[in-house]
Write a structure and sequence with these properties.
Rossmann fold; 4 domains; 6-stranded parallel beta sheet; 38% helix; disordered N terminus; binds adenosine-5'-diphosphate; binds magnesium ion; DNA repair; helicase; EC 5.6.2.4; ATP binding
Length: 722
């Protein structure tokens, strides 16, 4: 008798290669990530492609394609009961439907449907849903929500219109019941189909095991993942929906925080920094010579920075301080402490204008001290640049001032021990500057004047120490800010004329043209400049500054403005960050509706530094609600932290990180402004867990490790190497 052979023909071998049954009862998110949506009945290539457009490719994507909201059908009213002014939801059948508005590029902007629900007829108009036109054939059941208005009789100004099953089957189907999920949809996947698919996906997935440690769930009183996912789609009631949301928000934030905590632990273990031992021989005379006393906040933050530098752990500190809060002094204190300890300090600015200004003010402040300050910019002549590079490499240069790009690009330092990054607006995990100098990691101080809400800084910068300058130098006057219609812009210039009359100076900022049209930008700037020179201020000295000018020209213009030779500076956004001319007391921003909120706040910051009550004019004809809101916010608030929250609220958080920009995943469900409490808890739990198990190697932490890896990508692999 021959032994069975396991060659290709043998049935045994074939059985070996057959995948296990698909609908296994227990599953994990990583397993679901391996299963394409085409596995579901009824999902062919066409539907799969449409789902792909929504970012849904696998069963894991599908079950985490969370509803954007739920329609509460417990509030449905019969048409005959509707009153003017009331917000209501009706379930009715379509009698007929027609497009409204003029088509734009072949698209119907809105539609108007005649509805009948057995108690009465009512027309409903809804904008932005023109593409539903063909789906709303007569007799389709729809759920419509909106406001009842009087317009040739009553009509429903609808915010939403969704196709539903015959309500006779209410409660049975995924589409109706007390809470019906409404999904981000597109033309091919309407809300109804999305519901069906997700219902099937949840059925097909099986029991989803929870990667979060049970102890944390118990402590935080959170439902398990499986229940939360089911409840967020098809909630049993309002409370369950709330708990499910809380759980999934926690989940998302906890993973990110654990990644950050692991990163911090890893860096602390593997890197050695320099133990700075400043003796104050440079710092004390510098502080003493300042023409002002430090604010309490400056004193505190300088203390924090020096403390961080004394430790052997490499310092990674984020300094947040509003425009004009005096961050430069803090930076110089750190730099001097580095020099006192025999190291070199570098300060990097985002623009050449700013680098130049730092160079001028820092070398002036240090002129009586034995500190050699060197400038390094792209526009230096070859010879000058070579001399600077040599001084940096040889160690004769103590403090190096340059632009971000320049210093990051492989300049050879003799002994770099502190890097200050000034005016860093966006700085994520992925692209954080990592300086490695002969085995020693220099300390870093990242300064930003675009304060971000605390929630956001915890999320984005969760592995950095944070210092906050929450006090402005005394005597700062709030900037009197006014929004002015374009037709009235001469009033703004009349007011500026008064400032000039009193011997002060002003900025006029040109409207922002598309970035890609830099030449357009220059043309707009030149036009505005001509208008000012010939019509508005013919008797004043007006200067022009834009991005396309040669560095030398820019330098001369800035010098002339500083020395008051130029009284009015017409500029593009090149002055956005950090430029400091205290005698300037007025700023006019033309085309203000085109700027972002933080940009406007930065620009306004140019005039809050002097002793005179400053003025800011936002010349704008806002065309959208959002731009109106931005202008209102600026007129109402001076505080950059407050403004950054308003900004976040206006912009929404969907595009907040931009994964490429920051190395952070976009948030799917957490809303940072809303979920601060959950974030704080998630962060605490994450750091505790990592303190106990830095590489997540304990068996019950493994699923968590896998989740983080799937969320944050390969970049985090090094965190978990044993
Ligand atoms: P920012 O935080 O926006 O970078 P700067 O460091 O440029 O602010 O400081 C803004 C202005 O305030 C500068 O002219 C600076 O000399 C001045 N300044 C800084 N600290 C103080 C202080 N404690 N008292 C008075 N003026 C100060
Ligand atoms: Mg600054």
């Amino acid at each position: 008798m021959a032994w069975p052979t396991f060659n290709e023909a043998s049935p045994g071998a074939v059985r070996e290669t057959v995948p296990p049954p698909r609908l296994s009862w227990r599953t994990t998110l990583p397993e679901l990530r391996e299963r394409p949506v085409t596995e579901l009945p009824g999902v062919g290539p066409r539907i799969a492609a449409a789902l792909g457009d929504l970012g849904v490719r696998t069963l894991a994507d599908l079950v985490s394609h969370y509803p954007s909201r739920h329609e509460d059908l417990s509030n449905v009213k019969p048409i005959s009961d509707l009153r003017v002014g009331e917000k209501a939801t009706v379930v009715a059948r379509v009698v007929n439907v027609k497009p409204v508005g003029r088509p734009v590029r072949g698209r119907v902007p809105g539609l108007s449907a005649q509805l009948y629900d057995g108690t009465g007829y009512m027309p409903a108009t809804v904008w932005g849903r023109g593409w539903l036109l063909n789906q709303l054939v007569p007799d389709t059941w729809v759920v419509v929500s909106g406001e009842v208005q009087r317009k040739y009789g009553l009509q429903l100004a609808a915010k939403s219109i969704e196709v539903v099953d015959d309500p006779a089957t209410l409660g049975e189907s995924a589409h109706a019941g007390r809470f019906v999920p409404v999904y981000p949809a597109n033309k091919a996947i309407n809300a109804r189909r999305a519901r069906t698919l997700i219902h099937r996906g949840l059925d097909g997935a099986g029991r989803i095991l929870d990667p979060l440690p049970a102890a944390i769930l118990a402590r935080q009183n959170l439902p398990n993942l499986h229940d939360a996912i089911h409840e967020i789609h098809f909630p049993s009631d309002r409370d369950c929906l709330k708990e499910a949301t809380r759980r999934l928000v926690f989940h998302e934030l906890f993973l990110i925080q654990t990644g950050l905590a692991a990163r911090k632990a890893r860096l602390e273990k593997t890197e050695t920094g320099r133990r700075h031992r400043g003796d104050g021989r440079l710092l004390n005379p510098f502080l003493k010579a300042l023409p002002f006393g430090l604010t309490g906040a400056q004193e505190r933050v300088i203390g924090e920075v020096l403390e961080g530098m004394r430790s052997e752990k490499p310092m990674r500190r984020l300094l947040q301080g509003d425009v004009g809060s005096g961050k430069t002094v803090v930076a110089v204190a750190g730099l001097l402490s580095a020099v006192e300890s025999g190291g070199q300090g570098a300060i990097m600015a985002p623009t050449e204008v700013l680098a130049e200004q730092h160079y001028l003010s820092i070398s002036a402040a240090l002129k009586d001290l034995p500190v050699n300050v060197v400038l390094l910019t792209g526009s230096q002549g070859a010879q000058e640049r070579r001399a600077a590079l040599e001084a940096v490499a040889g160690g004769e240069a103590h403090v190096v001032v340059g632009t971000h790009a320049l210093i990051q690009k492989g300049v050879d330092f003799h002994n770099l021990s502190l890097v200050v990054v000034d005016e860093q607006h966006r700085f994520g995990v992925g692209q954080r500057t990592e300086f490695k100098e002969k085995g020693v990691t220099p300390d870093t101080l990242i300064m930003t004047a675009t304060p971000i809400p605390r929630t956001l800084s915890l999320t984005l910068y969760g592995d950095l120490e944070v210092s906050i300058l929450d006090e402005l130098p005394p005597g700062r006057k709030p900037v009197d800010t006014r929004a002015i219609a374009v037709a009235e812009r001469y009033e703004a210039y009349e007011s500026v004329a008064e400032e000039l009359e009193a011997g002060r100076q002003a900025y006029v900022i040109c409207p922002l043209v598309e970035e890609s049209e830099a030449l357009e930008d220059v043309r707009a700037a030149e036009e505005l400049y001509d208008e000012l020179v010939t019509e508005i201020f013919p008797e004043r000295r007006v200067g022009l500054l834009h991005g396309r000018m040669k560095a030398q020209e820019k330098r001369e213009v800035m010098a002339a403005f500083r020395s008051r030779e130029i009284e009015v500076l017409v500029a593009t956004v090149v002055v956005e960050v950090g430029v400091d001319v205290p005698n300037a007391s007025a700023i006019v921003i033309e085309g203000a509706e085109r700027f972002g909120l933080s940009q406007l706040h930065q620009l306004r910051g140019r005039v809050c530094r002097g002793l005179h009550p400053p003025k800011c004019f936002l010349v704008a004809d806002p065309k959208t609600d959002d731009s109106q809101k931005r202008l209102d916010a600026l007129c109402d608030h001076q505080d950059g932290f407050k403004l950054s929250e308003v900004d976040l609220a206006i912009r929404g958080e969907g595009t907040l990180f931009g994964a490429r920009q920051s190395g952070m995943p976009d948030l799917k469900i957490a809303k940072l402004l809303r979920d601060i409490d959950i974030l704080v808890e998630a962060r605490r739990e994450a750091f505790e867990l990592v303190a106990d198990d830095p590489t997540l190697r304990k068996p019950h932490h493994r699923p968590l490790r896998r989740e983080i890896r799937d969320l944050l990508g390969r970049d985090v692999d090094w965190l978990f190497k044993e």
